[in-house]
Structure formats: C-alpha cells, structure tokens
Design brief:
Elements lengths: L2 E2 L3 E6 L3 H12 L4 E4 L16 H6 L12 E4 L7 E2 L15 H4 L9 H4 L1 H9 L17 H15 L27 H12 L5 E2 L9 E2 L5 E2 L25 H7 L3 E4 L2 E8 L4 E8 L4 E12 L3 H11 L16 E4 L2 E9 L15 E4 L18 E6 L20 H9 L4 E8 L8 E9 L5 E6 L4 H20 L4 E5 L16 E3 L23 E3 L14 H21 L5
Helix pairs in contact: 1-8, 1-12, 6-12
C-alpha cells in the first residue's frame, strides 16, 4: 500500500522547462509546491571542463535509460510495434532540468498562422485544400493572446537576437533582451547569398547568451564562449539558458519548492471529476507513495504526459477508427530531410567552433508565407545555416562517391573536415487520423507498466514538402559559391534508427472543443478541472520550428491559470 504524504497546494510532475517555469511563478506567489523528477539532481558544476563527446553525445549520459523504460513504435496498425532499444530518431532527457539541459538553445516563436491553421487555410484556399485524413485544427488561442507570455520567457531566459524581425514572423511587443550572436564567415556567406536571391535572412534567436545578462528575477549569467558543446551537453558557463540556472534557483530561494528526485510518478489519482493527488515510486527502493494535492500539473515530455493519463484512465483514449477520444490524438514529429551540402576546395571554415543556436535563418518558405495554391502540401519550413560546433567523432563529411574506407576516404576526410557547410530545412509536420499514441499491449517498463506506443509514418504531404524545400536549399548553396553542392531531396518511410529531431508533439491537445481536445487554452483538462497538462503534448500540429519558445510561453500562461484556479476554482474558459 502506498505511503500517504502531507498534502500540498500543487504537485508538478517533471522538473524541466515547464515544471521550472510554473514552480517559480507559483512559489513567488506564495504557494507550496512539490516537484517530482524521476532522474537525479544536476547543477552547472557537473559540467566544469567536461567536453566529453563520447560520454555525452555518443553514450547519452543525460538521457533516459532505455533498458528501464522506452517507446515502442510501428508505421501502421498492420505492423507489430517493437521497442526502441538504442537511441536514434529522438533523445529522451532524464534528470533535473530535463531536455532543457541538453537542448541547443534555438529559439523560435511559432507563427500567427500556426495557432489558427485550419481557419487560415480554409479562408485562403478553401476546405478542399485539407486532404482526407488530415486532422487539422485551430489551437483555441491566437498568437496575439500568447504574445505577452513569449515576452516573459524571453526576458527570463535572456534570449539573444536581432532587434528587428522580418515580415514573415509574428510581431514582437518587446525586443529580445540581448543582441544577436556573432556572425561567422559561413553565416555571412549564407546571408549574402539568400539576400541576392530576394530572401530575408536574419540571425537565429538564441538562448545562448550573446552578452552577460541579469534577468528580472536577478539571475546573473555569463556570455557564451562558443565552445561548440551545447546539444547533448550541459553548459559549464551557464550561458545556455536551462531550468537549473534560471527558474529553479528562483523557486528554491522562496523556500516553498521541494524537489523530489528519483521519484517516478505512475498515476494521477482521481474520482472521475477531480484529482486528489499523484502516486509515485521512489526509484532506488521501489517504495510507493501517494502525494495529495489541490492541483496536479503534468509537465513532463510528450510521451510521459500521454502515458500517465492513459495509465490513470483520465480522459478518453483516442480511437483512430471512430476518431473519438482525445488522449493520444494528433501525434506529430518533424520533417527533416531537405538539405544541401556545399563543398569548398578553396576555403576553410572553423566549423569546430560554434554554439547550439549560432546560425542564420529565413522564413520565406515557412508557414503560409508563400502561395500553396498549386502545391501538394501545407505549411513549410525554416531554412538555416547553423554553426553548432562539429565534434570529431560524429562528423566526418566526404563527397558522394567517396569510398567508405581506405586511402581515398582518409584523404577526403582530412580535406573536407572544415570545408563543408550545410543549408537545411526544418519542416513542419501535419496531423493525420492514423498517427497517434496509445499503451502497448505487450511491452512493459521496469515497474511492470505498459510502455507508450507510437503509430506514425511520413505521408505524401511530407515527401512533397521535402522535395520542394530541397530545391530552395540548393539554390542558396549554389549562390554561396561552393565548388560542389549535393542536394538531399527525398523522404521515405519513417525509421526510428537514425537521429532526426527530438521535436515530438501532440497526444494531449489544446483546443476550444472538448470533443477534439484534451485541454483548454490554459492547458486545464476538460475532464478534471484541477489537472493541467503542459508542454509540447498540447500542440495540435508541429511547426517548421523548434518547440521550446511556444512550450515556454504556454507554461507562463498555465502558471497564471493555476493561480486563478487556486483563487476561485472551476473552469478557466
């Protein structure tokens, strides 16, 4: 029997960006909060002088142990799902700070179009533009309504970026708090070439600080050193914004946050209308506990949020045959594949240096910024040249046709080690009725609980998108004056083996209709008024961007909603 703990105002499951933001806001307002993290604690000191590519990038030090819990996947319902036993397609963070510790820091607000995507699509092209099976829907909130919360996240994190934005992105009521990152020779090549083609490049907004910064909570952080150890690594300088150096210290300083590490929440306890708390396992001992709370907030990753709700029998599971139910609906990924590599015989670049969000980008072919009337896809992609720091184990570029071993391979490896630049598109992913998450009927985790199962494949929509965007990346790369360019313009069946993107979304969608969404625009559950489910699981589709900015903005809005709920109760919309 689970040991019952003393009741608290708020229980937060997951201590990454979402949990950290909400914990900071609620504790500053005087509420007592318990935060659950199933991994270990972390701090900046853990990463001092630890530029260990093998340990972190190749052996996944900061990631979830897949032998204890993983994801099963299949491309369609005719295939038996199998577990992901080694990391490939995406990385699942574990430990205090979650994926907010090992992210690159690339920061993009979703476009105004994204939040009203169905309405805007029908308005411009008619309802027939949406293909059969695509479960496109509006988010139940507009860009303008969410804009002040983007500002809150940016001021907290110290986002660096151009003081002005292009016509292709949403309007900003306040500029980024620090200026753009440095411009490298490679970035200048990209920007000059794109501008000559009539496009609108700008510096990538970055959570890697361009300058020393003190945020509104008084947190001081130093500027980025451009060491190139961002993605899959913790930042030894604290220059990359992460929950452990921004929001969590603020919450802990109030004395009203208790963080319980090695605590794996397995279930929300409820009576069908309201939650009474959460049940969790103390991982080292296997002991079970029950934590009563007035409000329960799921703030973990996409798969965990969906899985906990399904294990708790809270909310109606999605049925792809009838398209009824909402938990597990509209799972989306990211469509990466359109890219062009530029090889130079006469130029070298210091590509071993960089930062996770050092780059130049453009949005001319993102969202609905271009005419889709004669195209067989919706949405688009952000196109960028990034200089994130190419580390020696993972990067060994050679031109097509090079032997995979021997004298020629060695010679080309040495020659092109710092002579290759990549222009790549990060594409959107639209939802389809047959893409969803549910509980696997066969495979279980180390505690005997069913794993989450993903059913997903790339569609014709995605393949057409990649083909179109690849031509755009090649045009830019050709204009950059390379000796040779090689385009990648095809997408086949989704394969979970190679790394692609950790930008999974959906499963607990937000919206205005309880029949097609699980949470309202405060991320409050329709089926349980004191349960809030936050993070990218709320996205109704995935944009041509990294999700963190929108995740962060929604977290600030949720914190506001929880305060309102604690004051008066009831539905917030």
């Amino acid at each position: 029997m689970a040991t019952k703990m003393p009741k608290v105002s708020v229980a937060i499951v997951g201590m990454g960006w979402v949990g950290g933001v909400i914990a900071a806001e609620l504790t500053k307002a005087g509420h007592n909060v318990v935060g659950f993290e199933r991994g270990k604690t972390r701090s900046t000191e853990d990463y001092y002088h630890v530029h260990d590519e093998l340990r972190y990038a190749n052996r996944y030090e900061l990631m979830q142990d897949l032998s204890k819990e993983t994801v099963t996947y299949r491309n369609n319902e005719k295939i038996t799902a199998l577990p992901m036993r080694t990391y490939g397609s995406f990385l699942l963070g574990n430990g205090l700070g979650g994926a907010g510790v090992h992210w690159n820091g690339q920061y993009f607000r979703f476009l105004p179009y994204d939040f009203q995507i169905k309405s805007k699509t029908v308005e411009r092209y008619g309802a027939k533009k949406i293909p059969d099976g695509m479960t496109l829907q509006d988010w139940g909130i507009t860009y303008d309504e969410l804009e002040p919360y983007f500002v809150k996240f940016e001021q907290m994190a110290g986002i660096s970026g151009d003081p002005t934005t292009t016509e292709h992105v949403g309007k900003m009521s306040k500029p980024f708090p620090t200026g753009p990152m440095k411009q490298t020779p490679a970035m200048k090549l990209f920007r000059d070439a794109a501008s000559k083609l009539g496009l609108h490049p700008y510096s990538m907004p970055s959570a890697n600080l361009a300058d020393n910064y003190t945020n509104p909570d008084g947190i001081e952080r130093a500027a980025c050193q451009y060491c190139g150890f961002c993605e899959r690594f913790g930042c030894e300088y604290g220059a990359k914004a992460d929950p452990c150096v921004t929001v969590l210290p603020v919450a802990l300083k109030t004395g009203k946050l208790e963080i319980r590490t090695f605590s794996n929440v397995t279930k929300i306890v409820h009576d069908g209308k309201k939650a009474s708390g959460v049940q969790y396992i103390h991982v080292p001992t296997g002991e079970e506990y029950f934590q009563p709370a007035d409000v329960v907030i799921l703030a973990s990753y996409v798969f965990s949020n969906t899985r906990i709700l399904l294990l708790s029998d809270l909310g109606k599971p999605y049925d792809p045959k009838t398209q009824t139910g909402v938990i597990g609906r509209n799972y989306c990924y990211q469509v990466n594949g359109a890219a062009t590599s530029a090889f130079y015989d006469d130029k070298e670049f210091s590509t071993f240096m960089g930062a996770g969000a050092l780059g130049a980008v453009l949005d001319d072919f993102n969202g609905d910024n271009f005419d889709h009337s004669d195209l067989n896809f919706l949405h688009g992609a952000n196109i960028a040249l990034t200089q994130t720091g190419l580390r020696p184990i993972a990067n060994n570029p050679t031109p097509a046709g090079t032997a995979s071993w021997g004298k020629e391979f060695k010679a080309n490896s040495i020659k092109y080690a710092n002579r290759v630049l990549n222009v790549a598109a990060q594409g959107s992913c639209m939802p389809f009725r047959h893409h969803y998450l549910d509980l696997d009927p066969t495979y279980k985790d180390a505690h005997g609980l069913p794993l989450i199962r993903m059913t997903f494949d790339f569609e014709d929509q995605d393949k057409e998108l990649v083909k179109y965007l690849a031509a755009k990346t090649k045009a830019i790369a050709d204009e950059m004056g390379a000796t040779k360019t090689e385009m990648r313009d095809s997408l086949s069946t989704y394969n979970i083996t190679p790394y692609q993107s950790t930008h999974n979304t959906g499963g607990v969608m937000m919206g205005a209709d309880p029949a097609t969404s699980a949470v309202n625009n405060y991320l409050q559950m329709w089926d349980a008024e004191n349960v809030f489910v936050c993070g990218a699981s709320a996205f109704a589709h995935n944009s041509g961007y990294n999700p963190t900015a929108t995740v962060g903005a929604l977290a600030y809005r949720t914190a506001e909603g929880v305060e309102k709920y604690l004051a008066k109760g009831g539905s917030l919309v």
